[in-house]
Amino acid sequence: MSYLIFQNANLIHSVDLNNLQILENKTVLVNQDTGIIEKICNHIDEISDQSCINNAKFYQLKSTQFLMPGLVDTHCHAPQFFFTGTGLDLPLLEWLDKYTFPCESKFSDLNFAKKVYEKSVKSHLYCGTTTICFFGTIHLEATKLLVDIIEKSGMRGYVGKVCMDRNSPDWYREETQKSLEDTKNFIDYVLSKQNPILKPVVTPRFAPTCSSQLMLSLAEISESHNIPVQTHLSENVNEVKWVKELFSSESYTAVYDTHGLLNDRTVLAHCIHLEDDELDLIKKRGAGISHCPTSNTSLQSGIMPTRKYLNKGLKIGLGTDVAGGFTPSIIHVIRECIGVSKLYRSFVKSDEEPIGLSEAFYLATIGGAQLLGLEEKIGNFSEGKEFDALLIDFSNIIHKNDDHHEPNFSDDHSLREIFEKFIYLGDDRNIKEIYVKGLRIL
Ligand SMILES: [Zn+2]
């Protein structure tokens, strides 16, 4: 067995929605063979098994460093990295036609796919995302390639081959049977890797581009293989109207439910314009929501009432939704989550408390883990969980190009204040090391 022992370690993580715990000067023992955090204690003498110590690599953390859990991005489109930061002048349905479908159609070319996917995966990893839930494109081979690239990176990856058999240009649409066959082949491919940190996801793009037959059959595949489902729900008012025209159903949420796609493994991106009965249905089925505020602002979709959904007890994680969202950084999404909730209070509902920093951080870690069914494995530093962690160095938080002259903030601020500064002012340059399941991957 090989071990990691971190000494003088400051740990910052969520215990629950309202409780950000800061532990100072701890010793952390990680088993690298299992990836498990075996012990968090005050002093190395408390590790009774001498063989752990004999087989350990030691890391002495500096006073300017802390460990936090790896971030979880619960909704993102890997191919759209190609046009991230451009084309944000249109609302959803027009944006899909003008920018998204033309870009995604290019992934039939595996050389192009390789080039984009390698950069896409790296861009998220460098921002501290250790677990990601990706949409690929409709192309089987390119989506298999995406899984290979994620596997090579060492990240935890949930990946879906996109399914869509109507209401898109004929040059970017599948035949229903082909979509189903490719989905089954994709699932077999991912499962054959027998890699516990990679998972296939059944991925109907959204109801308007999926026939009833396609959705019903995808639900059967999800059920028979016990595979998660990801899709979009109630992102844009015109989309909601369109769904009501296409399906004679009580609500958009009911469309997914009547097609068997709503269960406790389902990740629903956006969920902005939901009625109360839809929230009840999502709760009843145990499905969860990926909140993507950066994208929602960029595509003029609206503001998700996060406080209301939290009060309802719904599972919520955060998503970058690249490229509707212009950044691969979940840290940025934490800021946006807080910011849009303040706007919601100012302009929509004055009695609704905005989301606080501790709560948004919880959503970016434990909330995301719950959404993906990983709450027993990751999300914080409980003993027995797997060690997915970021080593943050905050010695150069504000003047990033002036390392030598920047005063050490730890002399003047509490660790809690330093953490807040990192969330609002820090970026990938402050992320010095990244660990997944006990292994250093960056
Ligand atoms: Zn999306």
From TrEMBL:
It comes from the Eukaryota. Gene3D superfamilies: Metal-dependent hydrolases, Urease, subunit C, domain 1. Its cofactor is Zn(2+). It is an enzyme of class 3 (hydrolase). GO terms for cellular component: cytosol. The keyword Cell division does not apply. Pathway: Purine metabolism; guanine degradation; xanthine from guanine: step 1/1. SUPFAM superfamilies: Metallo-dependent hydrolases. Its EC number is 3.5.4.3. GO terms for biological process: guanine catabolic process. It holds the Pfam family Amidohydro_1. It catalyses: guanine + H2O + H(+) = xanthine + NH4(+). Residues 66-438 form the Amidohydrolase-related domain. GO terms for molecular function: guanine deaminase activity; zinc ion binding. Binds 1 zinc ion per subunit. InterPro entries: Amidohydro-rel, Guanine_deaminase, Metal-dep_hydrolase_composite, Metal_Hydrolase, Metallo-dep_hydrolases. Keywords: Hydrolase, Metal-binding, Zinc. Belongs to the metallo-dependent hydrolases superfamily. ATZ/TRZ family. NCBIfam families: guan_deamin (TIGR02967). PANTHER family: GUANINE DEAMINASE. Catalyzes the hydrolytic deamination of guanine, producing xanthine and ammonia. This is Guanine deaminase. It comes from Brachionus plicatilis.
